[in-house]
Write a structure and sequence with these properties.
Blueprint lengths: L6 H22 L34 H15 L1 H11 L4 H27 L5 H14 L10 H26 L2 H31 L1 H13 L11 H10 L5 H15 L10 H39 L1
Length: about 325
């Protein structure tokens, strides 16, 4: 039985990979500026500055688009919590610290651009948005029980960044606004680069500590939840987003979980001990259950939509 690497040993072994991927990221990422994605000529003062306060008729977004935009923005807003968690699980020294700072700075642009767009175009109620932001950030983000350490962190963020990219892209489609589409596609491109960074680090971790990494990936997938879980109106808004295909179980399985597992060659690896094999079998059983759940979910959604269509007809 091989002895587990300590957190310090894992961080040390992975640091050269982190450094190489920072170089790759900086060579690939394109600088952009939130103010270039906001239609400032549409803005006007609110009542406190002698103008007019928000009215629902001022919004050109559908209810689904508003819910998706607010959910995505509040998720991005919680960056202080994510920074704390990622700093706790990595380190603020060396290449790891450089990445923590760079990632945080890039993520912060997303909330800036989205909020400026929503307030400028009067797409949502800015008072309700700010009230929800205060509640959400005060609560912070809470990791699942037994979550901790560099392997859990890089595995989770790999899946989460990819899921967030998909959510931004599908939100862009339902907004039916070329300005929102351009902004959200830009944000989604950032999320994709972040996902690739974490995916590469986790892939290297599989080579350095295969059993430990396998256990982390299995645990993360079995307990996975989006970082916005628990925000105000999360259940209601989540149902609406799922119903309209912003992010649902099918996308989670087919566009997030399975592609990443294939890149890591999880089910083709031959370097696990019996312990890693047990964890891989556990993951396989979970994926079989998730596949069944996806089918049930789609059948149920189809029935609901059919009933609604019949009532309208």
């Amino acid at each position: 039985m091989t002895e587990d690497l300590t957190q310090l040993e894992l961080l040390t072994e992975l640091e050269p990979v982190v450094g190489a991927n920072i170089d790759r990221h900086l060579a690939t990422a394109k600088d952009w500026y939130p103010h270039d994605y906001v239609p400032w000529d549409e803005s006007r003062n609110f009542a406190a500055m002698g103008g007019q306060d928000w009215d629902p008729e001022q919004s050109r977004l559908s209810e689904v688009a508003k819910v998706a935009m607010i959910t995505n923005l509040l998720t991005e807003d919680n960056l202080p919590s994510y920074h704390r968690v990622i700093s706790d699980n990595f380190t603020n020294d060396g290449a790891w610290g450089t990445w923590v700072g760079r990632w945080t700075a890039e993520e912060n642009r997303h909330a800036i651009a989205m909020r400026d767009y929503l307030v400028c175009t009067r797409a949502v109620d800015p008072v309700a948005l700010e009230n929800d932001r205060m509640v959400h950030l005060t609560r912070g983000v809470h990791a699942p029980e037994n979550f901790g350490g560099v392997l859990d962190q890089v595995a989770y963020v790999t899946f989460q960044e990819l899921a967030t990219r998909i959510s931004h892209r599908t939100t862009a489609r339902v907004c039916d606004d070329p300005i929102a589409d351009r902004m959200l596609q830009r944000i989604a491109a950032d999320e994709n680069l972040h996902m690739m960074f974490y995916r590469n680090i986790t892939g290297a971790a599989f080579d350095i500590a295969p059993d430990q990494t396998m256990e982390s990936v299995t645990k993360i997938l079995k307990t996975f939840s989006m970082p916005g879980t628990g925000m105000p109106n999360w259940r209601r808004n989540g149902v609406l987003m799922v119903k309209h295909g912003i992010y649902d179980l099918r996308q989670h399985l087919d566009e997030v979980v399975l592609p990443v597992l294939r890149i890591w060659k999880v089910f083709n690896r031959t370097d696990f001990t019996a312990r890693g094999e047990r964890s891989r079998e556990e993951l396989g059983e979970y994926l079989e259950k998730l596949t069944r759940d996806v089918i049930k979910f789609e059948e149920q959604r189809d029935r609901i939509l059919a009933r609604q269509a019949a009532r309208v007809g």
